[in-house]
Write a structure and sequence with these properties.
Elements lengths: L10 H28 L5 H24 L5 H21 L4 H29 L5 H30 L5 H19 L22 H27 L5 H29 L1 H25 L2 H18 L4 H10 L3 H33 L1 H19 L5 H4 L1
Helix pairs in contact: 1-4, 1-5, 1-6, 1-8, 2-4, 2-7, 2-12, 3-4, 3-6, 4-5, 5-8, 7-10, 7-12, 7-13, 8-9, 8-10, 9-10, 9-11, 9-13, 11-12, 12-13
Length: 394
């Protein structure tokens, strides 16, 4: 770590805080889908509404960063942690009425979105010259380890006391870990500047295809992120232990395949990867929507679990769009500003898909929902095929 980070910086406090908050998130994420279905009694449509409010802070983030432009990255990180603790504590203490549960989700998500960009900013600020990539890689590894620890705890507890359904205990434990992460975060000092490109929208005509790709990707991603686990819970009856095991396997798979996908993008180019990943998605969506018509329910459930992990892996190909932006950008600043705008565009479509997806599932069934995702994937492939790369121009 001394070879990656500058002496005299508070990088150790940052990563201890991240590890603790990641454990808390793993505990929370491992049980929230089952809690919403089994305790809050949320239907397919209700889940879409809850996801709308979970994604809404992503749209509001530009406004928040603009209002708090005088805050340093350290202060923004601490603020995000405090808001996350409030949201998680509320989730642990409130009665499971739909309105209050959604409010708690919104508050927690607001803190998470505030903190999200600050992790990268601080990791880069604390790194030595030329070590930014390794610093971000180390940060991601720390967070993944924390998530895995949380998922494994859920798996272990539900293997022993599944009948007790101790959801509230997990929320309390998550709040405790996040409170501890907040306490550690107050050791962060300094005045690191936040990324100014995240405070404004940056549109240029040459990036229009990137923005459209973000629209298609955000739409298809949201279907699986929101409704993938909920199908397993509501339709197949998976408990929190099984869902946490699925998340753990997905995290390990992404940890293993992420560098391989990165190498593939460098070797064959970003355009073929953009096209191929969504073609594979069509197969994934077909089995997710129709497996129960073809196979016995138990076999269909296993097939859906395998396809959920496969979707997590092929989603790594979204890195290709960032490489595309890098290829056509005139500077590092323009690249960062464009990617930040792409994130906002992504969130704009995800909040709409969250509501639409819940309605489609309720009215037309999961078959139509995942065929919609497959159609969006095909649109993504068709649009990606129109891109002219540097290889095409040479």
């Amino acid at each position: 770590m001394n070879a990656i980070f500058q002496k005299g910086t508070r990088y150790k406090a940052l990563f201890v805080s991240l590890l603790l908050s990641a454990i808390g998130y793993g505990l929370y994420k491992g049980v929230i889908d089952n809690y919403l279905a089994e305790v809050a009694q949320m239907t397919e449509m209700d889940r879409g509404i809850a996801e709308f409010f979970r994604e809404l802070p992503g749209l509001l983030l530009v406004v928040v960063l603009a209002v708090l432009y005088n805050f340093s990255a350290e202060k923004m990180y601490k603020l995000g942690m405090c808001v996350m603790v409030i949201g998680m504590t509320m989730q642990a203490l409130i009665s499971p009425t739909k309105a209050l549960v959604i409010l708690a989700i919104f508050i927690y998500s607001m803190g998470e979105h505030i903190q999200l960009g600050m992790r990268n900013t601080l990791s880069l600020e604390y790194s030595r010259s030329g070590s930014g990539g390794r610093a971000l890689g180390f940060q991601n590894a720390v967070y993944q380890i924390g998530n895995l620890a949380g998922y494994l705890a859920v798996i272990a507890v539900f293997a022993l006391v599944a009948a007790a359904k101790p959801f509230k205990h997990f929320f309390i434990a998550a709040a405790v870990f996040m409170a501890a992460a907040t306490v550690v975060s107050f050791r962060l000092s300094g005045n690191s500047a936040t990324d100014p490109s995240r405070r404004r929208f940056y549109f240029r005509k040459k990036f229009r295809k990137y923005y459209m790709l973000e629209v298609f990707y955000g739409a298809r991603k949201q279907v699986f992120f929101t409704f993938g686990p909920y199908v397993l819970v509501l339709f197949y009856g998976a408990d929190a232990g099984v869902i946490s095991l699925l998340f753990a396997v997905s995290a390990v798979a992404c940890f293993i395949f992420s560098p391989l996908v990165g190498k593939l993008i460098d070797r064959v180019g970003y355009k073929p990867v953009m096209i191929a990943d969504t073609l594979i998605l069509v197969i994934v969506c077909f089995f997710y929507g129709f497996a129960h018509h073809i196979f016995p329910m138990r076999t269909a459930f296993i097939i859906c679990c395998v396809n959920y992990v496969l979707d997590s892996v092929i989603s790594l190909a979204s890195m290709a769009s960032n490489v595309y932006v890098q290829d056509i950008s005139d500077s590092q600043e323009e690249m960062k500003a464009t990617i930040s705008t792409g994130i906002s565009v992504n969130h704009l479509i995800t909040v709409l898909i969250a509501l639409l997806g819940g309605w489609v599932w309720k009215v037309l069934g999961i078959e139509t929902l995942f065929m919609l995702s497959a159609f969006l994937g095909l649109c993504n492939s068709a649009y990606a095929a129109t891109i002219r790369t540097s290889r095409d121009r040479s």
